[in-house]
Structure formats: structure tokens, C-alpha cells
Amino acid sequence: EAGVTQFPSHSVIEKGQTVTLRCDPISGHDNLYWYRRVMGKEIKFLLHFVKESKQDESGMPNNRFLAERTGGTYSTLKVQPAELEDSGVYFCASSQQGLTGELFFGEGSRLTVL
Amino acid sequence: GQNIDQPTEMTATEGAIVQINCTYQTSGFNGLFWYQQHAGEAPTFLSYNVLDGLEEKGRFSSFLSRSKGYSYLLLKELQMKDSASYLCAVFGVAGTYKYIFGTGTRLKVLA
User: A59 vs B87: CB contact, 8 Å cut-off?
Assistant: First the structure.
């Protein structure tokens, strides 16, 4: 069974440009989370989908960040326009229905904004 | 706030036992998780505590005391491959569905 996959693994862009990160969760997992880790800091919650609905987006830094999960399958996280402080590793994680299960993480998408 | 504190780095010897502590300042959560993350890889699930006490899974055990705001991960019979970061996370604070992570503890296992 395929795990959580993320694309791209690494993206280098200039300030002001746009980047879209994609996450394919494990098939059948209703819960999908986006997290971000900036260098030296903890992994921080961005938002949580249950199927196609945003359950909690309280961690989204600002309106330059837009997440979608059309059809309740894969999700995208768009940053537009990117700023220097957006650099970090963006992790996607999924879990089965019910909210006490373990999270399965992707390997992350490293974003570098120059 | 929900500060979750872990030591930044620890070093131990192959074959030894190491305890990684996690303290938190939060009230009311569903459970506490431990994840392992090797450099450049995805975090992977190790252990999960809902009730106070010890959960044992092979060489790894995790302990939770809600009254003391404290958890630890115990690794026995350390192997070189256990060199990794260990992340403590609380889930379901104040009725939310978020996992809130600590900064992680980088463990180095020496031969």
C-alpha cells in the first residue's frame, strides 16, 4: 500500500513567485493535515481537512496561503506570493476516520524562498 | 499556551537505555504521541498514551502522567539505527483535532 506522497520534494523559488505543493494521502484516509517546520523550530499545525471540508485552518499564517482538497482525495497548498519567511519543510499527514489514530506523514516538501 | 518542551539533544551508547522526557503546559487533551524522524525522512509513529501509565511496544515504551504534565519515551537496547529525532505531540487539545508538536529531541547513539 502506498504511503503519503508529496510533490515536489524540494522547490526553490524567488520572493514574489507562486508555488503549489501537492499531497496524496493514503487511500481511504478521511483526515488530511498540513504542517510546516521552519529551521530549528517545532512542526507547526497549518490546517486539517476531513474529506473535502476544512475542519480547522487556524494555523494558516495569512491569506497568502490557500489549501484545497477537491473531491476529498489529494490536497494542494498554494503560497502566493511567496515571502522569505515561508521557507521551511511542509509536511502532509493523513489518518483514518476517527480522530485518535496515528498520523502517517509524507516525507515533506522543502520550500526555499530566495 | 501549549508549550511542549523536550531536550534538544541527547547522546547514548549502543546497548544502553535512554529516557527522553516531554513536559507540556496544556489542559485537556485526548492523547500523547511519540514519533521518530530520521533526517530527511517522514516522521513515523512509535507510541501513543491516552491513560496514565506505561505503554510497552518492544524496545520502546512510553509513559504518561497527566497530573504532572509529563511524558517520557524509553528506548532499550539501543541500536545505531535509533539515532534520529524523537517528537512528542499532544492531540485534541481543548476539543480541537490538532496535533501539537514539541521541538523534538535529537538522539545520537554511539558505538
Answer: no
Using one digit for the tens of pLDDT, what is the confidence trace for B35-67? 999 988 899 999 999 999 999 989 999 999 998
Per-residue pLDDT reduced to its tens digit, B63-95: 999 989 999 999 999 999 999 999 999 988 877
What contacts B58, CB < 8 A, 6 or more positions away? none
Instruction: Return residues 71-100 of A near B (CB < 8 Å).
Output: 91, 99-100
**Who's near B20: CB < 8 A, 6+ residues apart?**
B6, B7, B10, B72, B73, B74, B75, B86, B88, B105, B107
Cα angle value A68/A72/A74 (rounded, 5°): 65
Chain A nearest C-alpha distance from B37 (Å): 10
Does A81 sit behind a cis peptide bond, omega within 30 degrees of 0 on the bond before it?
yes
Residue A55 to residue B97, Cβ atoms within 8 A: yes
Buried-state track A61-97, b at ≥16 Cβ within 10 A, e below 16: eeeebebebeeeebbebebeebeeebbbbbbbbbbee
Q: For residue A62, give every residue at least 6 positions away whose Cβ sits within 8 Å of its Cβ, in sequence order, or none.
A: none
